[in-house]
Specification:
By secondary structure, this protein is mainly α. It folds into three domains: 2-120, Rossmann fold (3-Layer(aba) Sandwich); 186-272, Serine Threonine Protein Phosphatase 5, Tetratricopeptide repeat (Alpha Horseshoe), CATH 1.25.40; 283-455, DNA Cyclobutane Dipyrimidine Photolyase, subunit A, domain 3, CATH 1.10.579. Helix content is 47%, strand content 5%. The protein contains 20 helices and five strands. The protein has helices at residues 16-22, 36-39, 44-63, 75-86, 99-109, 139-148, 186-197, 204-207, 220-224, 230-243, 247-272, 294-301, 308-320, 325-338, 343-353, 359-370, 385-392, 397-402, 422-427, 443-455, and strands spanning 2-6, 28-34, 69-72, 90-94, 114-117. The chain has a five-stranded parallel sheet with strand order 3-2-1-4-5, with helices on both faces. Helix 6 packs across helix 11 and helix 15 (343-353) runs antiparallel to helix 16. The longest helix is centred in the middle third of the chain and has 26 residues, at 247-272.
Length: 457
């Protein structure tokens, strides 16, 4: 009997860890460990999605004749204990790259025979390196090397059956609300991928930044927990390229693949430079004198900055646990550049709310915006939230959806409501300063202040 230790691979199709466990012609016991250290971090929407995904996986396992064993406690205690109960020879798990996961697995490897298998990315995290063996710290050469690696367009099949799970004690999964907007499970992930590949991917390059359109795949939560594999989505994108001859459609498919590469680039950065978990990648930006401005921070958190596109993004995050990537950049830039509040505060807030919250991607994105990381946006790149709104939400549909106070404001004022006269405000059913705030900071003042702040470094 082998143990398949489920971590970030909640699927049966194209699962290298499960396939490796089955390859030895032994029975497999699927197990998930409720690790108190990880669950102690408040992330209710993400945890709800995880637990609902585990329930979906459990049902899929039952259809194959198996089941899911759930234990609660320190994995370094619970995995060896379970291995003794089922007389398991080996434990198979998907390799993870976070500092905590690597410490945990190193400790477990001294106690049991633990086999770590790839699957978190298309390629193993240390496969894309320079000729001298050093990791890339700039995205463009990394992406070239990534694309140059051989790729077999194959997917490991879903098992046709699994041996019955031993009759063992299993802890109940915590009760949670439904993960609104993101039904959990492998079947839903496959449905979303297929829907995306049938049409949206071919306009991705032009529509992906539009806040008012459904121009992205919205697969990030499913990739986060491995309800679909990165190889499956890459293979799907490559098939889509072969199906279309138009250069624009093919370029859109390539643009989406580029986003997958960004995901693996940030995994590589976290793996090779684990200190980014708690500090800036660039040492000269480590000790910046950030503002302590709790009122401004609260206004940002609650979507009350007075800049409609910023507020819309923050309210979408709070309500759904997800935010369009363009909105993530706009809101993050506002916190760091307009308010001069430490990017790490924003990173924590996002991780608290995001259904797809991933340490590597979230850290990489925030450091990019703040100018403290690899491939960082230069300090003088300061998003103008008004222009960003006009460009990526031209009719104001995104703003009106998430900032209902502005529902009746016409397009001409939707991104600058403070410019309305008192008569306009009365006609359009909003009073600036009462039921929707004035901007908490003037853009031009904030821009010049940020330039002085970062230029000193």
């Amino acid at each position: 009997m082998n143990i398949w230790w489920i971590r970030r691979d909640l699927r049966l199709t194209d699962n290298p860890a499960l396939s490796a466990a089955l390859a030895e012609d032994a029975g497999v016991t699927p197990v998930y460990i409720l690790d108190p250290l990880l669950l102690a971090k408040p992330a209710p929407k993400r945890q709800a999605f995880l637990f609902n995904g585990l329930r979906a996986l459990e049902q899929d396992l039952k259809k194959l004749g198996s089941g899911l064993i759930v234990r609660e406690g320190d994995p370094q205690t619970e995995i060896p204990r379970l291995a003794a109960e089922v007389n398991a020879g080996k434990v198979f798990a998907e390799a993870d790259i976070s500092p905590y996961a690597r410490r945990r697995d190193e400790g477990l490897g001294k106690i049991i025979e633990l086999h770590l298998v790839g699957g978190l990315g298309v390629y193993p995290v240390d496969a894309v390196c320079q000729a001298n063996g050093k990791p890339y710290t700039v995205f463009t050469p990394y992406s070239r090397a990534w694309r140059a690696l051989p790729y077999a367009d194959l997917s490991l099949p879903k098992p046709k059956w699994l041996a019955p799970t031993p009759n063992l004690n299993s802890a109940p999964l915590p009760e949670t609300a439904s993960s609104a907007g993101f039904p959990a499970g492998e079947q839903e992930a496959q449905r979303r991928l297929n829907q995306f590949l049938e049409g949206t991917i071919f306009s991705y390059a032009t529509d992906r930044d539009r806040l008012d359109l459904e121009g992205t795949s919205a697969l990030s939560p499913y990739l986060r927990f491995g309800m679909i594999s990165p190889r499956q989505v890459l293979s799907g994108a490559r098939r889509a390229i072969k199906e279309r001859l138009e250069s624009q459609a093919r370029a859109s498919c390539e643009a989406w693949i580029n986003e997958l590469i960004w995901r693996e680039f940030y995994q590589s950065i976290l793996f090779h430079f684990p200190f980014v978990r708690s500090s800036a990648f660039r040492p000269n930006y480590q000790n910046l004198a950030w503002r302590h401005a709790p009122d401004d921070f609260r206004a940002w958190q609650t979507g009350r900055t007075g800049y409609p596109v910023v507020d819309a993004g923050m309210r979408q995050l709070a309500e759904t646990g997800w935010m369009h990537n363009r909105a993530r950049m706009i809101t993050a830039s506002f916190l760091v550049k307009h308010l001069l509040i430490n990017w790490q505060e924003g990173e924590k807030w996002f991780m608290h709310h995001l259904v797809d919250g991933d340490l590597a991607a979230n850290n990489g994105g925030w450091q990019w915006v703040a100018g403290t990381g690899t491939d960082a946006a230069p300090y003088f790149r300061i998003f103008n939230p008004t222009l960003q709104g006009k460009k990526f939400d031209p009719d104001g549909m995104y703003v009106r959806r998430w900032v209902p106070e502005l529902a009746h404001v016409p397009q001409s004022y939707i991104h600058t409501p403070w410019q309305m006269t008192a008569e306009h405000q009365k006609n359009f059913k909003v009073e600036i300063g009462k039921n929707y705030p004035h901007p908490i900071v003037d853009h031009e003042f904030a821009r010049l202040r940020a330039l002085d702040f970062f230029r000193s470094k």
